[in-house]
Design goal:
The structure is a homodimer of 207-residue chains. With 207 residues, chain A is of the alpha/beta class. Chain A has 2 domains: 70 residues, Arc Repressor Mutant, subunit A, CATH 1.10.10.10; 114 residues, Rossmann fold, CATH 3.40.50. Chain A contains 8 helices and 9 strands. Chain A has a 7-stranded mixed sheet with strand order 5-6-4-3-7-8-9, with helices on one face. In chain A, strands 1-2 form a two-stranded antiparallel ribbon. The longest helix of chain A has 19 residues. The radius of gyration of chain A is 20 Å and the shape is globular. The relative contact order of chain A is 0.09. At the A-B interface, α1, α5, β8 and α8 of A face α1, α5 and α8 of B. Chain A binds a DNA duplex (22 and 22 nucleotides) through α3.
Chain lengths: 207, 207
DNA sequence: TTTTGTGAAGTTTTTCACAGCG
DNA sequence: CGCTGTGAAAAACTTCACAAAA
């Protein structure tokens, strides 16, 4: 069955919330309580969870530890994902130090940049190569996913040089521009200025 | 009329694309061409633009400069938005130096942190205050929107102290946690690990 | 002829409402 | 009795298909 993107996003939120509730010692949680904590309708929570089998207990709710494990399985990788990061600027560096990344599930193995000051060194303990050698390095290191944090004017060129690698499966694009890729490569965009503009658009509406 | 969130997001993409086409000297563009450049259906582009009146020319397409101005108006603020940023860590600092922010439309006026090394200083030329004084400072400086880049365990406390300010209208939340706010305050979440997890979920599916 | 603008159709996603089970 | 699981209904969003305009 095909699971909708919005559902997957919420599964991550449920997973995160359950880790918190578990750490706080809570044993059982209802769809209503989860909804309240995540600003979602209880029926939405139940519908999302129902796609993966009956996991709750009627009249009781969901067992926190059990549901957490269940979601962990759904979201778990076939093996630890190997990622590379292209563009070790401010944002790229911030992501390298980002605490919320789940280091059991994936790791940033390789960096790329075009700055010769950075190339050849280790940054946060991760080797940095020149972007021109990306294809060979990505193949040699079995990189599955690239995080792209380059300026928008460099984005498509970077993409064009990395999509030729045959092992690459996905790109998380932070560059504020649309990139064009072959259809066998998945792209998700994290577009910070789009999110800010959306917020400002609706803030304006309610004034 | 209520404009859907997905439409607003695409308007920002159109606006950005038109700036680029304009800079490249292109005079006219069709919905088909815009769709191709942004990986969207032509009919989607036309439908989105049609919500704001007839702006294209049948048989010709859209006049680049005119459509750009049109979108500029739609997305323009009533005045330059005044923003504050809470949490001057790696991610917060990266955003302070972020090139893609449209500095004509909004500016980051004030910073907040709980690190006494930062409080009282200017960072990137912007004064930094202690988070405990957020409410007074936000009111005094007429801050409309807060960018929240604090660790997840601090997020709700920060939110609770800033939502009491009466001028605050919206929060752009980068913390990897759900925050609960009064209903008159708009929240948009930029959840980096959720986006990465979504990508990895679908990468797994196609393997 | 080309390409827009747009009702209508189609698709997806969310919400409802209640049967079913512990 | 309370809360889940889930068809069915409603809402939201996208795509189609074509009339109308340049």
């Amino acid at each position: 069955m095909k699971i909708a993107e919005a559902t997957v996003a919420r599964l991550v939120l449920y997973h995160r919330l359950l880790a918190k509730l578990h750490a706080e010692g809570q044993k059982v949680v209802s769809s209503q309580e989860m909804g309240k904590l995540l600003s979602l309708k209880a029926s939405q929570v139940r519908k999302d969870l129902s796609y993966f089998g009956e996991i709750g207990k009627r009249g009781v709710g969901y067992h926190v530890a059990k549901l957490y494990e269940h979601l962990d399985d759904i979201l778990s990788p076939p093996q630890k994902w190997r990622m590379g990061l292209v563009g070790v600027g401010h944002l790229g560096s911030a992501l390298l130090g980002y605490k919320a990344f789940d280091t059991k599930k994936y790791g940033i193995e390789i960096l790329f940049d075009n700055d010769l000051e950075k190339v050849g060194n280790e940054i946060f303990g991760i080797p940095c190569y020149h972007i021109d050698h990306a294809c060979r390095i990505i193949n040699e290191n079995n990189i599955d996913v690239i995080i792209l944090t380059v300026p928008s004017n460099a984005a498509q060129d970077c993409v064009d040089s990395i999509v030729k690698c045959n092992g690459l499966k996905g790109i998380l694009n932070f560059s504020p521009t649309s990139i064009i890729v072959p259809e066998d490569i998945l792209v998700y965009n994290v577009d910070i200025s789009v999110e800010l503009e959306k917020l400002l658009f609706y803030v304006k509406q309610i004034m």
